Amino acid sequence: MKKIIILMGVPGSGKGTQAKKIAKKYNYGHISTGDLLRALDNNQSADPEDKKKLAEMKAGRLVADDLIYKLAFREMDGYLDAGRGVVLDGAIRNVEQAKKYQEYFVGKKLKDEVLAIEVALSDGSSYNRLTKRKVCPVCGFILPYSPENELKMDCPECNAKLIVRADDNPETIKKRIIEQGNQAIKPILDYYAGLGLLFKVDGEPAIKEVEREIERVIDNQELVISDE
Length: 228
Ligand code: AP5
Ligand code: MG
Description:
Elements: E1 4-8, H1 15-26, E2 29-32, H2 33-42, H3 48-52, H4 55-58, H5 65-81, E3 86-89, H6 95-107, E4 114-120, H7 123-130, E5 134-135, E6 142-143, H8 170-180, H9 182-194, E7 198-202, H10 207-220
Parallel strand pairs: 1-3, 1-4, 2-3, 4-7
Antiparallel strand pairs: 5-6
Helix pairs in contact: 1-10, 7-8, 8-9
Bound molecules: BIS(adenosine)-5'-pentaphosphate and magnesium ion.
Magnesium ion is lined by residues 15-16, 32, 34, 90.
Pathway: Purine metabolism; AMP biosynthesis via salvage pathway; AMP from ADP: step 1/1
Protein name: Adenylate kinase
Binding site for AMP: 33, 38, 61-63, 97, 165, 176
């Protein structure tokens, strides 16, 4: 199986939910740039210049590429140098970043170890999911939405109080869908399709079903697509 698994998709497509499962099953490092940025935001001793760049995230826009490289490449170095694979969760959000990551993989002699998977979801489903999401600020657990879970206040994994993410308010969600919805991510998908690395999984069915399809791609790489 490939050492670099790139998960892409609109906000709320299930990148985090599925990346955690992949990382656990294959003992891969899980790199979510969103989580790294939120950790930076909570880090009192972090570089104030870096923290200033988080204003973009709070407004639902992409943060500066250089901050992403600084955070993500350091994390990847750690896992890859220890011989482990990585699953990238939303770590690539524009074509410039995609190219820079490819350069990084070439430098690591991992050019043939890259697999890109789009978890496809409509912008409408994205909005519906994000307006209902609850997460654990301590262990990162993402509570699957269901009528029973809607009433849950505590994390089933570590018992901490569940929260609604700061960017999961209707106004910021709408901005994220404009900035990072299906129209916005199309050029990145085209880039990976052009390299012959893109696979697509339908993100609309139940979590377990999406997980099964992603595993089929990882294990067999048989579900080739690309919208062309
Ligand atoms: P990030 O934290 O990555 O946010 P995002 O892209 O908006 O994606 P989400 O985390 O909201 O959704 P997800 O796809 O992980 O879905 P989840 O599994 O939680 O990034 C935050 C911000 O950081 C960005 O807006 C940007 O500003 C900045 N940033 C990050 N990376 C960057 C980069 N490389 N460059 C520049 N800026 C960057 O699932 C969502 C909900 O749906 C959950 O409630 C879940 O339970 C539910 N769900 C999941 N799958 C299913 C299913 N199959 N059926 C039903 N419900 C499901
Ligand atoms: Mg996420």
